[in-house]
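REQUEST ID: PR-0412
SUBMITTED BY: lab tech R.K.
PRIORITY: routine
TASK: structure prediction, single protein chain
INPUT:
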Amino acid sequence: MQTKHNRLLAKSTEPDRYVPALTGVRALAAYLVFLHHHNPALPGTFANRVLTQGYIGVSVFFVLSGFLIYHRYADDYFGQKNWSWRRYVQNRFARIFPLYIVLLFATFATNLVMGRAMSWSVFVLNITLLKGFSETYKFSGIAQSWSLTVEICFYLLAPYLFVALRRWGVIVLTVSLLSVGILLCAVFWQLPFMLFYTFFGRAFEFLVGMWLARRWQKNQLPTVRFATGIGLFLISVSVLWQSYSPQFLTNPTALIGSEVITYNTVLPITIGLLFVGLFCEESRLKLLLSQPVMQALGRSSYAFYLIHIGVIANALEKLGISNHWLLFGLLVLIAHGLYIFVEKPLYRRFRTELQDWRTF
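STATUS: complete
OUTPUT:
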């Protein structure tokens, strides 16, 4: 009887696999990237400089991805009882590729009709997502999909990172991966490209999320009062710093160094602090992000991210949709339709576990 009680107690204290607020965070991250590419503020204004920093949404995605992959798969990997490389790779493929390939073919066909045909070599780089390793072609096809190359690298390395994180910790592992990236720069890349567009340069963001997941599963998250508010404040400070730093950091090396410190180092920590607040505090932000409408928007955020610039957004603009907010609203509706009628059915066709969809 006591054994049964202990099992029930352990089950009751184990974190749920699904955290509603994290789904809402996905929507906010995608919309921040939209503001970066479709800045509604007048050039040169304070608002314009701030909204230009909307690409922090990519950092949010990377930290969140690190958290979710560790949370979803680490126990299975270490236990080995339910672990299957085939199932893992199939689920990751089903999550990323089907909708991406549909939209890539649409992009390819549109460019062909418009007389801007993509060469077959570039098309192959895009369909395999190898384009993200190329400084020349990283923005070809669906421009923003360079980040999917970074995601795929993380997915393939994640099971090994589970072990390395436990043995070495976040700092040593980050330095090790960054060192590999620097060595690769001697042959393949320029340093700024490696730092901002490859997994080796962005690894710290994923590792912060993995570290959070590990601590959260053990109920060992750091106790920080007002973590939500402090996290939002520090994210705002980071954005403001980067908004104004070009005015007094005129040296290109200094500007790159500032971005590396802010976006590759400080920002992931502040995003992690915000996540701690979403896990441990009952805040208005958590309540907002957990609302049904935010859940729906979060689930369609991947589709929104893939279409917010590209052939669909361009088509809307050519139809006379010049207002940024109207464009935003139409893209949200189209993304939701793509999620319902394309992304979700394709995922169900290729995935091996239904629960994996709910986690993401």
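NOTES: Residues 44 and 222 are 40 Å apart (CA to CA).
REVIEWED BY: pending
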